[in-house]
Amino acid sequence: MKQIECADVSQSYGRKNALFHVDCVIEAGKVCALCGGNGAGKTTLMKLFAGLLLPERGSVRIDGQPLRCADRARIAYLPDESSFSDHMQVGKIRLLYETFYADFDPVSCGRLLDRYAFRDNMRLGSMSQGTRTLLELIFVISRRAELFLFDEPFAALDPQLREEAMKLIMAAQGDAALLISTHFPGEIETYLDRLMIMQDGRLAVDAEADDLRLQHGCDMQELVRSYIKAERR
């Protein structure tokens, strides 16, 4: 995969408009942060890229071709809410990944699970939210996907663990495209190639990180904060 794009995409939930005429491109090998306030449309855009939603208007394309169900096998997605129930055990999740994802690397996954002392008989319900997020992130990055989507992966993590999680993500990236929805762009700024900021379902900013620093003379965290403040007025 060279790139995935949204072309003039609009989306709504009943009478609530979630996205308005969004155009954006995520390129292979690049790290892009997706920022904005709550309800700005970030999760909807993530789900469209993941193939979990069909756009009401416009299209989602991989290398110029419409995204198909089969393409979802090339995409690894960590949603903002857990995909598994509290009673699920680590070993059961590992088996599910081995069964359903041909690109899953059980050896790499096993090493990471051992590093963070996860055992097969541990249940998700016994973990803190941060520990649970780290576990699910480990399973996602143990795939050899062409596109990784992370929806608020750092929200439940303390600052030290956020940095650790980002290092794990970068170690797994390879040539894949990376899109990370986050309220903490400053903490991953050194890795960023591109920044997108959503406002009321529209893409208010979509530019190279270096260009934004030169243009605005501030870091990414301050830039995002200024847009969120403006949105609340």
TrEMBL record:
Pfam families: ABC_tran
SUPFAM superfamilies per the UniProt record, alphabetical: P-loop containing nucleoside triphosphate hydrolases (SSF52540)
Keyword annotations from UniProtKB, A to Z: ATP-binding, Nucleotide-binding
Signal sequence segment: none
Keyword Nucleotide-binding: yes
Name of the featured protein: ABC transporter ATP-binding protein
GO molecular function, one term: ATP binding
Species lineage: Bacteria, Bacillati, Bacillota, Erysipelotrichia, Erysipelotrichales
Cross-referenced PANTHER family: ABC TRANSPORTER, ATP-BINDING PROTEIN, SKFA PEPTIDE EXPORT ATP-BINDING PROTEIN SKFE
